[in-house]
Specification:
alpha/beta, Rossmann fold, 2 domains, eight-stranded mixed beta sheet, 10 strands
C-alpha cells in the first residue's frame, strides 16, 4: 500500500481558496497536516465585488477541525498583492513550501467582440496573478531548497472552447510559466506542474450557450459521451491529484495533468518526426511542403522535447532516420 500523503510542517498558499476547487484543496490539505494561507478576494465568478467572508469561512472550518490556517484578502492581480499574499504566509508560518495558483474568473464572449475589460481582467487574474504570487513564493522556496508549484491550466487552452479566447490565452500562458518554473526550479529542489481540472463550479454561472452559434463546436458538445461523468464532475474529484502533485512523494515536474470525471491522466505535448528536407543549405519550397504534408503530420513516430534545445536533437534523430545525415 502506498505511503500516506501528508503535509506535516509544510506551508501552502492557495489562491482563490474561498470556494470551489481551492476550498476543497485547502480543507483536505489542512486535514493532512498542512498550514494553509487561504487567499480569496471574495468577488463574483466574473471578478466583480469583494468580500472577506469566503476566505474567513474556510479558515474557520479548518480551525474547527483542528487545523492551522490564516485568511488573506489581497488581489492576485497586482505585484503588490502577490507580495502581500506571500508575506502573510511568512508572517503566520515562517516559510512557503507549496503554492497553488487557483484564483480565476470568467468573462466569455466571441473572439471578435472581446473588449479590453474582458481581456485585461482575465489575463490579470489568471496569468499575471499566478506570476505575481509565484515569483515571491519561488524566492522563498529557493532559499529553503524545496518547493511545489501547481498552476491551474484548462482544457479550453489545450484543446479549445469557443467564446473563451481570453481565458484560453491566459491558461495557455500558465502552461508556459509552469514549464519555466520547473526548468529553473530543478536546480533548487522546486517542482512545478500544470493541472487541467474539470468541475462544475461557480465559474459555470458565467457561461452562456452563445457559443452554439459555431456549428462544429456545438456538435462536439451534443455528441459528447457523458456516460462516465455522472456525479463525477464535482470539485473533490480533482483534489486527490492536486494533493499528490503538491506532496513530497511527487517526483514529477515539468508536466501537464488532466483531471476529468475521475480519470487522471498526464497530457503530453509532442512533435511528429516530420519530413526533413534533403541535405544541403537550400530550403524547401511551399510546393515541397504540400507534397510532404502527410508525413509532416504523421505521428507514428514522435518526440517530446523538454527544452527548446532538445528539439534540435529530435531533428537530428529524424534526419538520421530518414537518411539525410
Amino acid at each position: 500500500m502506498a505511503e500516506a500523503v501528508r503535509f506535516d510542517n509544510r506551508v501552502a498558499i492557495i489562491t482563490g481558496a474561498g470556494g470551489g476547487l481551492g476550498k476543497d484543496y485547502a480543507l483536505e490539505m489542512a486535514r493532512r497536516g498542512a498550514k494553509v494561507l487561504v487567499n480569496d478576494l471574495g468577488g463574483s465568478g466574473g471578478g466583480v465585488g469583494a468580500s472577506t467572508l469566503p476566505a474567513e469561512e474556510v479558515v474557520r472550518q479548518i480551525r474547527d477541525e483542528g487545523g492551522e490556517a490564516v485568511a488573506n484578502f489581497d488581489s492576485v492581480s497586482t505585484r503588490a498583492g502577490g507580495a502581500a499574499i506571500v508575506q502573510a504566509a511568512l508572517d503566520a508560518f515562517g516559510k512557503v513550501d507549496i503554492c497553488i495558483a487557483n484564483a480565476g474568473i470568467l468573462r466569455n464572449n466571441r473572439f471578435e467582440d472581446i473588449a479590453d475589460d474582458e481581456l485585461d481582467a482575465v489575463l490579470d487574474v489568471h496569468l499575471k496573478g499566478a506570476f505575481y504570487v509565484a515569483q515571491p513564493a519561488y524566492r522563498e522556496m529557493r532559499k529553503n531548497g524545496y518547493g511545489r508549484f501547481i498552476f491551474t491550466g484548462s482544457a479550453s487552452a489545450m484543446y479549445g472552447h469557443a467564446w473563451q479566447a481570453n481565458y484560453a490565452a491566459a491558461k495557455g500562458g500558465l502552461m508556459g510559466l509552469s514549464h519555466i518554473v520547473a526548468i529553473e526550479g530543478s536546480a533548487y529542489g522546486i517542482k512545478s506542474n500544470l493541472l487541467m481540472p474539470t468541475a462544475i463550479s461557480r465559474l459555470g454561472d458565467e457561461m452562456t450557450e452563445g457559443f452554439r452559434e459555431i456549428p462544429e463546436f456545438a456538435k462536439s458538445l451534443d455528441n459528447a459521451d457523458w456516460s462516465a461523468s455522472g456525479g463525477r464532475q464535482t470539485v473533490n474529484f480533482n483534489t486527490p491529484l492536486v494533493l499528490y502533485l503538491a506532496s513530497e512523494q511527487c517526483d514529477l515536474t515539468h508536466a501537464i495533468f488532466s483531471a476529468n470525471s475521475g480519470r487522471y491522466a498526464q497530457v503530453h505535448i509532442c512533435a511528429a518526426d516530420g519530413w526533413v528536407t534533403p541535405a544541403g543549405t537550400t530550403p524547401a519550397t511551399p510546393e515541397d511542403v504540400a507534397a510532404h504534408i502527410a508525413q509532416i503530420a504523421d505521428l507514428s513516430i514522435y518526440h517530446k522535447p523538454q527544452t527548446v534545445y532538445e528539439e534540435f536533437s529530435a531533428v537530428a534523430d529524424a534526419a538520421r532516420r530518414q537518411g539525410v545525415i
